Each structure stands twice: as structure tokens, then as C-alpha cells.
Amino acid sequence: MFRSALPLCLWSKNVQCSMFNVQKITLILLATLGVSTAAAQTDFSLENIRRIGLPVVEITTADGVEPTCDYVTHPDGSFGEGITNCTKVACRVVITRQGETLYDSGEYQKNVSGATIKINGNTSAYHDNKPYKVKLEKKGDLLCRGDSKYDDKEWKLSKDARSLRTIIGLKMNELMGLPWTPAYEPCNVFVNGDYRGCYLLMESVKRNSGCRLDVDKATGYIVERDPYWWNEDVWFETNFYSPNNYYRWTWKYPDEDDVTAEQTEYIRNYINEAEQSIADGNYEQYIDVGSFAAWLLSHDMMGTWDSGGANIFVMKYDNTPSSLLQMANMWDFDSIFWLDKGTLARVHTSAIDFYFYQLLNSSNKAFARAYKQKWESVKNTVPQQIMAFVKDFANSEEGRALQTSREYYTQRWNKALASVDEDVAEMEDWFDGHLPLLDRIIQNIDDGTNGIRKVENGGEESGALYDLMGRKAAAPRHGIYVSQGKKVAHRK
User: What is the DSSP letter of 107?
Assistant: First the structure.
């Protein structure tokens, strides 16, 4: 995560909290007396929000025009709610910290200065405060890291500052060794002088060999397994997903406006061959097993509920045989910690959402071994490092400034948010309760080396049964159990 050398906040936490508590108490008293709370508006002025200490992103559009969109629902046989007809509005972007200008795009002039802004996202756009995509006319680093290698045109303003889940997920992404971790900065956002709340200013998923996903400029590929494919102009289908309309593949690189028929044919054929190799058990010549294992294990550790909407990006460095299909970065963390403790991520157990179920149940145990080996290498370090990182953030001036910003967000949008400390407590409770149970489950995954063997009993082949928490079932009843690394239905 980017850290500025500039002092984060010269205004003490106590002063911030005291002022805000006075505002909240005033609102409660007025409401009790039957006085309209409109008479006691929170001060959302630029000057006041700057005092909080987070960077402030000011977006001023040409003629004050707001970006707009239409809302659209999925066709029959697909799922999801999305947006369409998103208008792209010319704007100027200025970033300050406590009044000091860190970045100024200048006024909009095509290919020279300024930027455009449009509403971004799918269901996240179905609220009054919107996520945005910012595209600069001239490359720059909106995170102001002082190195031109970070310059890019495409940036996201995500609403994910409302919880710490994205910060936790991106730290997991980094520590698990996935190819790239998007950099980000919590900030407050104004559009045309109107306070919109706290956001994460983030790098977007795209090719940039200097600082983002690194694939060859001429022959590299980044594609997304996309449940919202039906809302895109350009997409392609592979055999694994052809039996239904749930998923197709859409483009991150090359851009959909630039991709050729030959490029589409190449990557479609390669993914089809990879899918067949998974079915045949010779997948190691097509996929990067290590990145696939790290990606899945990360979501298992975080208990991710969403197996459909969660973004799945894959990449191929170039079109040579030595370049394998690789999992790119994780992105969507809205549904981490949603499952019951001791439950695998839904994408782990689904036979239709992605390839993990087939890989774990293949006669070729290379993936299962890589998954278990990755777990053994990280289980005593990565969760502890994440918890320490998040606690340090929560106790930092930046964390305290984010907490104050959330309180202003609550007042601005009349939507209560958990506190930063509550987010930390949720994370600790999850890891403390979930990881010991996950360890038992992983130990019982059949990787060809775990010593589970068939034994003779009354002329029938049988093996020990374990419940889905990984506990050996001494007297199993009717239900689903794990035997020799696979789920079985037991009838007493």
C-alpha cells in the first residue's frame, strides 16, 4: 500500500472525534425535540473534509455535467444486474492532502490534459454514491509515488473503503505471491464540489509491464471469466462453459476495441485445450499450477461466498508453448468471511464456476499436492502477517482518518457502517475460528501422498470417513463425508 512521506494528519484524533460527536449528539437532541435534522447538517465543506487527513480527490466536470448510466438485468439463463449506456464526462482531477496539491490533471484537452470519468461497476452502481472509472488523457500516477514507472491512464475509485475487506484481501494477494497486487490509497471524494464519501483510489486491472500485469505487448493476453459477459460488446465462449449461459470470457488485454479475430481464435483454442487437459489429467503442460493453487487457497482462507460474481482473471504472457495459463490477481472481496467457519470457498466446491473442483478430483494429483504444500508453507505465517498489518493500519493516523471519514459517509448517505475496529475484530474472529478447521479439511485432501489407503473389510473396499470439518467419524450416520479425499454419500 502506498504511504506518502508527507505527514498524514496534523489535526489530532481527539479533536476530530470531539467535533464529530458534538454533531451526532446535536442531531439526536434535535430529533428528540422533533426538530428537523436538516437544520443541523454535518459540515461537508472541502475545508472541513481536508482536515480529516486523507487525500482528497476533487473531480470537476465540464459544465458541471454528472456522469449517468442506465440499469439493466440479465437475459434468461444468465444472472446478475448491471449498468449500460454509461456516459463519459470530461473533467479535471485534483488531489490534495490537507490543502497541499499532490496532483493536478489540468483542464480537459483531448490527448493532452485532464481526464474523463464514468460510472463503473455492476450492482455496486445501484446506489446513490457511485463507483467511478477515471481515465487520464496523459499518463500519470494518481498515487503520487514519485516514479514514472507507475504512470498510467486508467484508475478506479472504488467504494471499498467502507470496510477493510478489500485491504485484507489485497494483503492476502500480496503475501500469497500472486503475480501483481493493485496499489491503493483511502481517500475522500468530491464531484463538482459535492462530498461523495470515502473511497479507495486504486490501480485498475490492465497490462502495464512496469507496475501492473506483465504480459507481452504484442502477443500477451489477459481475459476474465465473466458472469456479466452479456453486458459486453465483445466476448468469446469455451467448451467448459458452453452448456449454459452463466459465464463467457471478456477482454482486459488486448482491449476489446483492438482485439483481432486471430487473437480471439488463439486464446480460445488454448483455453479449450487447457480445459481438455484438466479433464484428461495432463494439465501441467497448460496451466501454472502454483498460481492456481495460491488463488484458490487464498479464497479458502478468507471464506469467500461469491463464486459467480467474484472476478477471475487469467493471463498468458505470450503465444509461445512455454507460456502457461496463469491466475492473475484477486479483485472482489465483498463476500469474504460470509461462510460458516470451517467451510471451503464456494468456488472450491462448485463443478461449474471454474476448474478447481475438476483439478482437485483429477487422477493427476499435482494440483492437490501444490495446494497442500502451499498451505503448509503459509498457514503459520500469512494469517498472522495479515492480522498484524491490519491492526497496525487501524492504529495508524491513516486508519483513524478513515474511521472519521466513515462517520462522515454515514451522515452523507444515511447508511451506517461498521467501525474500523469492528472490521479488525471480525477478521480476528474469522481467522481464529476458521483456520484450525480448514487445516483439518486440507489434511484430508487426497494428494496421492497422504497415506489414505483402502482396506479389506468383509470383502468390500472401504476407507475411513471424515465429516466436512475434518473429524474422523467413528460411527457415521446418513450424510455426506470425505473418504480418500473425495466427498461420498454414506447410508447407514
Answer: S
